[in-house]
Write a structure and sequence with these properties.
Organism (chain A): Nocardioides pini
Shape of chain B: globular
CATH topology of the largest domain in chain B: Alpha-Beta Plaits
Radius of gyration of chain B: 20 Å
Helix content of chain B: 25-40%
CATH superfamily of chain A: Peptide deformylase
EC number (chain A): 3.5.1.88
Largest sheet of chain B: 4 strands, antiparallel
Shape of chain A: globular
Family (chain A): Belongs to the polypeptide deformylase family.
Cofactor (chain A): Fe(2+)
Oligomer: heterodimer
Number of domains of chain B: 2
Number of strands of chain B: 9
GO molecular function, one term (chain A): peptide deformylase activity
Chain lengths: ~180, ~170
């Protein structure tokens, strides 16, 4: 796997605006079940949203990613940062993508996922552990394509799903693969 | 708030869930938690519903399901239970091997012996192959290595394989 250095070097300071914390919405908010709109990554509103997503991720304990629908905005924008997570292998640090999609994926692995927007449930989800993702950076709008693996690949797919109006529960590995959460964050 | 635990057991056929939930909805009950599976081909469903009807009314509404003798329905009012937000840890226990009497009792005795709580359990027998998968909560401070060692000892006596792995959740 090769790391995309353009994405790796990107930081939220590139946005040029200070992000503000937004409130995270929880299921059954309809925005979480509605496909987000494609956005103009150069528009000031999208740049502000990108900065706010990163700011909100930063203040949420254990949070490695946040998608616009999770702050009540039906848009295809998300941020991730898995750099501090123990399951991470190669990664791209903090970045935001707009209009992102998974181009290809391989090597399915099953893992149990939890989500800030569904705090009372966890579920087993099978996802490719090596993927190629294409999207646009907010601000400049430049198109980037990156390879991700392991935990970063899982986080990216979880956030892209949010942008498409899907929760991890939509991909539950079976009728008995959803669990009541026992320990609270 | 009144909760009712309902069980439906018996010969499987298409439409049992549709009929059961239609009667429940007709009484204005809210179907809260439920689980259903086939056990050796038998339909087995358990539901907890909340609503104003009493047990007798629910039994009466579900009576058509039992009319031909192929299904058994029970209805019982139950108290509300609070899920404990414990400080223990979650594990998945898997046991598999050749079928013989006593596998489940021997293995779960190890869990019970350390105050562990099983929160989900499935066992399957496929010809002579036996499988057990359980979700287990172990209390904080449990010596997990000792539990694993005891499970291995019990499994060796039974001639089956056992694994206990952490049910980690990826927070995304």
């Amino acid at each position: 796997m090769s790391v995309n250095t353009r994405v790796l070097e990107w930081t939220e300071t590139d946005l040029g605006v200070a992000g503000e914390q937004r409130e995270v919405v929880r299921a059954p908010a309809s925005v979480l079940a509605t496909p987000g709109e494609r956005v103009d990554p150069t528009s000031p509103d999208v740049v502000r949203l990108a900065a706010d997503l990163v700011a909100t991720m930063r203040v949420s304990p254990g949070c490695v990613g946040l998608a616009a629908p999770q702050v009540g905005v039906g848009a295809k924008v998300f941020c991730v940062d898995v750099s501090e997570h123990p399951k991470t292998r190669e990664h791209h640090g903090t970045f935001v993508l707009c209009n992102a999609e998974v181009v290809s994926g391989s090597r399915n692995e099953k893992a149990r996922e939890g989500c800030m927007s569904v705090p009372d449930l966890t579920g087993d989800v099978k996802r490719p552990s090596r993927i190629v993702v294409r999207g646009q950076l907010p601000g400049t709008g430049e198109e980037v394509e990156l390879e991700a693996e392991a935990f970063e690949a899982r986080a990216l797919q979880h956030e892209i799903d949010h942008c498409d109006g899907l929760l991890f529960l939509d991909r539950a590995a079976g009728a008995h693969a959803v669990y009541a959460r026992k320990t609270y964050l | 708030m009144t909760l009712h635990a309902i069980t439906v057991l018996g010969h499987d056929r298409p439409g049992i869930i549709a009929e059961t939930t239609d009667k429940i909805a007709g009484l204005g009950l809210n179907l809260e938690d439920s689980t259903m599976t086939l056990l050796r081909g038998h339909f087995a469903m358990m539901l907890v519903c909340e609503g104003p009807a009493d047990d007798a009314e629910i039994e009466q509404a579900l009576a058509p399901l039992t009319a031909d003798g192929s299904l058994t329905v029970t209805v019982r009012e139950v108290p509300a239970e609070r899920a404990e937000a414990g400080d223990g840890s979650s594990w998945v226990l898997s046991v598999h091997g050749g079928d013989r009497p006593g596998i489940v009792s021997a293995v779960v005795a190890v869990i019970a012996g350390v105050g562990g709580n099983i929160t989900d359990l499935t066992t399957r027998l496929a010809s002579d192959f036996y499988l057990l998968v359980a979700e287990v909560d172990l209390p904080s401070g449990t010596d997990v290595a000792a539990v694993e060692s005891e499970l291995s000892r019990v499994a060796a006596d039974l001639g089956v394989g056992v694994t206990l792995r952490a049910a980690e959740t990826d927070e995304l």
